[in-house]
Each structure stands twice: as structure tokens, then as C-alpha cells.
Amino acid sequence: MPNIKQPEASHYINGQYVEDNAGTELVTRYPATGEVVASLYAATNSIVDHALTAADAARASWAAMTGSERGRILRKAADIIRERNRELSVLETLDTGKPLQETLVADAASGADCLEYFGAIAAGLTGEHIQLGKDFAYTIREPLGVCVGIGAWNYPIQIACWKAAPALACGNTLVFKPSEMTPLSALKLAEILTEAGLPDGVFNVIQGYGETGGALVDDSRVAKVSLTGSVPTGRKVYAAAAKGMKHVTMELGGKSPLLIFDDASLDDAVSAAINANFYSSGQICSNGTRVFVQKGILPEFLARVKERTQKAIIGDPLDEATNFGPMISQAQFDITLSYIQKGIDEGATLVLGGKAHHKGGLYVEPTIFSDVTDDMSIAREEIFGPVMSFLPFDTEEEALRRANDTEFGLAAGVFTSDLTRAHRVVAAFEAGTCWINTYNLTPIEMPFGGTKASGVGRENAKAAIEHYSELKSVYVGMGPVEAAF
Ligand SMILES: NC(=O)c1ccc[n+]([C@@H]2O[C@H](COP(=O)([O-])OP(=O)(O)OC[C@H]3O[C@@H](n4cnc5c(N)ncnc54)[C@H](O)[C@@H]3O)[C@@H](O)[C@H]2O)c1
Ligand SMILES: O=CCc1c[nH]cn1
């Protein structure tokens, strides 16, 4: 394992590292071996208060800067991230266990894209002029104030950037709490933003468990909370935010359908099904874990997916040849194996995998089930592991009804060569993010987010601006003012 240094301290507040070793210990381990990567402390009440005080104090002067000035800093940070992509990717691999092959292209790189995108549009964030006869009105786009970001562990730096970039572009300040399992890369992001010229206090990172997230959400100085996490956590955080009438973005879990019609390009659909289930060892919110395949092509499709999945290179994530890594934690490993057992017990046919990998550690084999029915646990509940379920279907109407029969609504995909059908199907999907003839691509230019229990609001693209700013309306009377008496 490379000698990645322990961060200078656990938290980053007001442009510098801060420690308070009265906090609960928070240890991060390399999921491939269990070795300790870093040992930190969760925030104490005093650290939570320090971070919010810093963010509150920095608010007015950051908001008063022009969008161009703010944007320049974000774009500079994007450049620095790209220069340090390898170092950041290694850190992300050590924290998450995701293959370096992936983190080199999908994690810090996506964060840089996001900072660049919002850096570029910061100068153009304006209100509008509304002519009302000789009177007129205009709107002023204002920041919300102090925002709180709370992250999941699967895309740590990407999540931090997807929240920080639009928040900061709009003139807000942010306190970000990474997942307790992946605390490291957000601290690097904070260092990089400082190096790029971000004023102290505008972006702060504090570590902690759910309790720390809860303390941030409850604080009266906070105007907005953006959470990436599970649906149960989302329900709690949304309820707590509602008490303070705070704005929210909720990026939550999913159980997304991927529909493969018999006229689809099979090679492309097989690749998409593999990406949609086994990238990041299945630990992606938008994964297409319910693969509905039209009956006529099911045997061939299944055979091809199986054959290609057997070629997965399972190994040390730091080896760039590895394309399938371990689960993030013992808990996620246990959850995944317990769902595999439920799939077997409830009558699904195990086609491939299904066991802990013989390498040991937290590896679960890429697993494929066929003969899955809509009522099975593996078809209804989010597993967040490498478990692909095949469900046969006959007609479009049937597939859509079954695809939408879920509490989740994060994402959905369709493979067909019939253009009319493709658009008809996505129009009927009850999901916030849809793909036609591809899957899981999340460019910054496209809004990302879910409907139903999968979330509220959108990240990325111009849509995110609406979730990090609000409009003040100003009516201008040109006279005279009339009154009834
Ligand atoms: N929609 C998306 O964009 C997206 C992206 C990635 C992951 N996810 C989802 O995240 C989940 C996996 O991540 P996880 O296990 O870290 O999720 P989680 O819900 O357990 O935790 C997410 C974060 O919330 C914090 N938290 C927990 N309880 C809290 C509380 N009461 N108040 C405030 N904060 C609290 C945690 O400390 C962590 O930082 C999956 O369900 C996955 O689908 C969604
Ligand atoms: O994990 C959810 C967000 C995501 C999807 N693809 C890349 N990141």
C-alpha cells in the first residue's frame, strides 16, 4: 500500500486544519486488506459550532463577490484537481476500495468537470426583467446562505464537488460532512480550494457519523441541506430540515429497471447491463439492477452476460489491471451476501457467483440471478452490491408496469432500435434520470436525481442553480399610486 500520509488533522475550517481529539475515533481502512489508512476524530459540538460560525462569517463577503470572481476560483480548483488526479485517485481507491482503473476516470475527474462547469456559468447567474406596462419588475438571484452537504461513501470526492460547485457558484458557503467511511478526499478538496484562492470559511469539512450530520441539519444558521445517502437517512434528514423550513436536495437510493427489447443491439445492451451492475462492485445508486429482458432473446442475452462477467479481473484495486474490487465495508459485504442467500431461498436461479471471493477480504463475486420475480427481495430492495437480477417480459406495456412498480424512482434505461418506442418508454418511466441505448452516464451538463422515494431536487447542470439560490422579486412602480379613498 502506498504511504498516503495521515491528514494534518481531522477537520478543515476557515482555511486550515483543526483537531479536537475529544471526538469519537474514526478509522478508515483499505477495504482490500483491512489495513488502516488514516485515523481521525469525529467532530465534537465545539467543532460543529466552529465550522458553522466560520461558514456564517464568510457568507456576506463571498456573496458580494461577482460571479466572475467566484467562477475563476472554481475553475482554478478544477485545474489543480486535474493536475493531481492520480494522487487523488489513489487516495479514493484506498478509502473506497474501488479499482484505480475506475477512480482515475470517474471520481476526481467528475469533480473537476463539475467545478469547471459551475465556474463557467457563475458569471451568468442573473435574475430577469419583467415589463408590466409602464411599470416593471425584476428578480434578483440570491444565495441561500450557509449550506450543509452530507455525503455517502461510494463517490466521496465526486459527491463533495457535486454539492460544493453549485453552492459556491451561487454565493453560498458550505460545511461538508463526508461519510464516516471515506473521510479523506474532501479534506484534499478543501486544501485545493484554498490553494485556488477560495476565501477562508467558504468551504469547510468536518468529520463524523450520523449524529454530526444531524447536529448540522438542526442548526438554525443553516439554510439548506443536501444529502446523498440511503432512503431511511433521507427520510430523517428531510423531516429534520422541514422543522427549520430549510431547502433540501435529497439524492437517495434506487432499484432501477433496465429494459432490453428484442430489437436491441445485444453487444451494447450486454455491456450496459455489466456496467449497470458491476462497476464499483455494484455500489452505485443509479444501477440498473432489475434487468428486464424480452423473452425471445433472454437465453442468448444471459449467456453473453455470463461469459463476459467471468472475465472480470478481481484483485488489488491499486493494480490498474483490476476491474472489480471489494465491498467498502464488512457491513456492506454482509448485506450483499445476505441478499444473495435471500435470492436463493426465494427461488431465483443462481447463474454465476453468489459467494465471497476465494481471495478473502471483503470481495463478493459478481453475481447473476435469473428467473427473478417481481416480489422477490432481490427485485424490490436496494442491495448496493454486485447482484444482477434477470426478469423476463413479453410486452412493452407489461415491462413498463413492472418497471414502475417500486417505491424508488432514481433511474431507468431502455435498449431498443425502435426510436419511437425508446421515447415512448422513457416518457412512461417513473424515474428522474433515464438513458436510451446506454446506461449510467452522468455528465455534469445533465441534471441528475430521482423521483418518488429516491429524492428531491437535482444535482448538476443549470437545474442545480435553482436548488442553491432563490429569487427576490422587485416591483417598480412608475406612478401614480392610486387609492380607493
Ligand atoms: N442518489 C444519489 O445521487 C446517490 C449517490 C450515492 C449514493 N446514494 C445512496 O447512498 C446509500 C449508500 O450510502 P451510505 O450507506 O453512506 O448512506 P447512509 O444513508 O447510511 O449515510 C449517508 C450519510 O448520511 C449521514 N447520516 C446518517 N444518519 C444521519 C442523520 N440522522 N442525520 C444526518 N446525517 C446522517 C452518514 O453519516 C453519511 O454521511 C445508498 O442507498 C445509495 O443509493 C445515492
Ligand atoms: O452513485 C450515484 C451517483 C453516480 C452515478 N454514476 C456516477 N455517480
Automatic annotation (TrEMBL):
Its EC number is 1.2.1.8. The active site is at E251. SUPFAM superfamilies: ALDH-like (SSF53720). Residues 18-474 form the Aldehyde dehydrogenase domain. GO terms for molecular function: betaine-aldehyde dehydrogenase (NAD+) activity; metal ion binding. One of its GO terms (biological process) is glycine betaine biosynthetic process from choline. It is an enzyme of class 1 (oxidoreductase). The keyword RNA-binding does not apply. Keywords: Metal-binding, NAD, Oxidation, Oxidoreductase, Potassium. CDD domains: ALDH_F9_TMBADH. NCBIfam families: BADH (TIGR01804), PRK13252.1 (NF009725). PANTHER family: ALDEHYDE DEHYDROGENASE-RELATED. Belongs to the aldehyde dehydrogenase family. This is Betaine-aldehyde dehydrogenase. The lineage of its organism: Bacteria, Pseudomonadati, Pseudomonadota, Alphaproteobacteria, Rhodobacterales.
